[in-house]
Amino acid sequence: MAGTAARPDWRNGKLGTRVRVALWLVSEIGEGRKFTKSQLRNAMPGVEQIDRRMRDLRPAGWSILTYRDLNSLAPGELLLDKIGLPIWEKEHRAAGLRSVTATVRRRVLERDGHRCVRCGILAGEQYPDGTGSTARLTVGHVNPHKYGAGATEADLVTECARCNETAKHLTGLKLDEQRVWDELTELPGRDKQIVLNWLVAGRREPSRAEKAVSHVWQLPAVQRESIEAKLARLLSS
Ligand SMILES: [Zn+2]
């Protein structure tokens, strides 16, 4: 059968627990067959949170029934009702996972220049509404309403907590269309074009200068000061 040869061994301790549990279920149990929690724990002794990792398979399309779902099962007994997505394969690794791995998060922030793609604010920057509140960046789904979306880089964008909440609940601020339109028409022509491009793209493309600044900010303070001093010398020479 295609794909079977490439399936990794569940005994490989380098694989994540969720992947190992999935592989163990496929290789040692099989669809439609019963197993017990002790069998699973004994297969991977010393592995933490093994029950939880098994439950984490459900959003990836795995159906694992307990005695609560099926009264022919005894407590502690489970039924592998349906094998879901092959999460041991790279493209399915993140299936059903809500959390974003640290590496993916870092890559998304880097790609987006450490700024909110919706409103363009940088981490720690004050919102321009005079409330004095500062931005905190999060990594959110491109489509916040897509349930059980994968958490690969392509599915994620950098958003500030405020834009992320607005996208989720569609609450917005207490503004009406006329007020927003009046504000727009008062902008200089060049700014109107910037706003239009931004709206069409659905995101702000940071300028080269802004990207460079966001990179400087990621350096330790000593290096930041060194760069600032070098730049000042360069410009004054
Ligand atoms: Zn924002």
Automatic annotation (TrEMBL):
Name under which the protein is recorded: HNH endonuclease
Record has Nuclease as a keyword: yes
UniProt keyword terms in alphabetical order: Endonuclease, Hydrolase, Nuclease
Record Gene3D superfamilies: 1.10.30.50
Gene Ontology molecular-function annotations: endonuclease activity
Top-rank lineage group of the source organism: Bacteria
InterPro entries cross-referenced by the UniProt entry: HNH_nuc
Keyword Hydrolase: yes
